[in-house]
# Entry
Amino acid sequence: MRPVVISGTGVFTPRETITNAELVTAFNAYATAENETNADAIAAGDVEPLAMSNEEFIFKASGIQQRHVMNKSGVLDPDIMHPKLPQRDDGEPGIMAEMAVDAARKALAAAERKPEDVDAVICAASNHERAYPAIAIEVQELLGIQGFGFDMNVACSSATFGIQAAADMIRSGSANCIIMVNPEICSGHLEWRDRDCHFIFGDVCTAVVLEAKENATSDEQFEIISTRCMTKFSNNIRNNNGFLRRTRPDGVGDRRDMQFMQNGRQVFKQVVPIVSQMVVEHCTDEGIDPTKLDRMWLHQANKSMNDFIGRKVLGREPTREEQPNILQDYANTSSAGSIIAFSQNSNDLAAGALGIICSFGAGYSVGNVIVRRVG
Ligand code: COA
# Structure
């Protein structure tokens, strides 16, 4: 089977940012107003007052300092507490397709490829803005790509699973060149009124061009040595929103479980050992000593989680270069996180350097992509 390379990546970064300080001010204004509204019920002991959020906790617990969002004003308005995006009619490009086209153009330029060189578009993301037609097909149309496109969703692992799907198609010959995009508007499914998680997510879109090594010309090539994907069912990260919502007796209201929910402590405890073990085993099975990996581009959810996985895999404290984090600037961007880390921290590697792109999240799902820098 023919070798496959990643020949270019691109990142669309929304213009607006929210710092932890801005986020906490908005949340605390919301919580104060709620507590005033419920003052009698709180005094009677019928309702628990909402506790205030604080910047120190957020940074210490997560490592996040700010996040990019598609709309800041709605999120920070204590009377709204979610992004406000303009209505678009069906003749206009969708917002996710627009983000994806921007990232895809950058990835195509880096790969020295034109839309006519591409055979397929995969849109791999944890939420898609509509059920159908697929966002991937809209991106295909907007870029003028022939062939086919499809959407897929494996939550935070969508991009690594998408890379495996694309690489397998190129290896087997059903496509020569594929662009995979990861538009993530996490601000849309985050419950900004819940202090346990209101700091977690940000918005972004990444794109990756994959092609047969024999055809690739760019100077940013990484050969895909091996991929490995794993899923194991868990309710610890869950969102119950879906197309059957209106069919259920209690389905239409403003319900907490219609947004992202997680048992963060459990996720942390259960996922870290699974990921560390899977990276070590995958490398060992490929004849690679995991302690000799030159770089680990990990999923960007939590700095302590990444530090722990880095230590377990490398057997020592990873340097910032060995295990780059971008979550301080972007927060958790679901499937896009490890791809941003890869896109922004890979070009300095010398020919022959080995690294792993690794994602983990809801499902649970874990995806590994072992790559070697092409000289
Ligand atoms: N401000 C101040 N205090 C807060 C707070 C906030 N915004 N949010 C929670 N707290 C409080 C809690 O109420 C709790 O108080 P208690 O000890 O009195 O009960 C305390 O801080 C610790 O909360 P906890 O939720 O246990 O924090 P944590 O150290 O586990 O950090 C996460 C929370 C979410 C950052 C962390 O668990 C995590 O990152 N988990 C993995 C998440 C993940 O990878 N998810 C995948 C998503 S795709």
In short: The mean pLDDT is 97. The pocket of coenzyme A is lined by residues 53-54, 57-58, 61-62, 156, 195-196, 199, 237, 262, 264-265, 267-268, 301-302, 305, 332, 361-362 (CB under 6 Å). Residues 222-373 form a domain with the Peroxisomal Thiolase; Chain A, domain 1 fold (CATH 3.40.47.10).
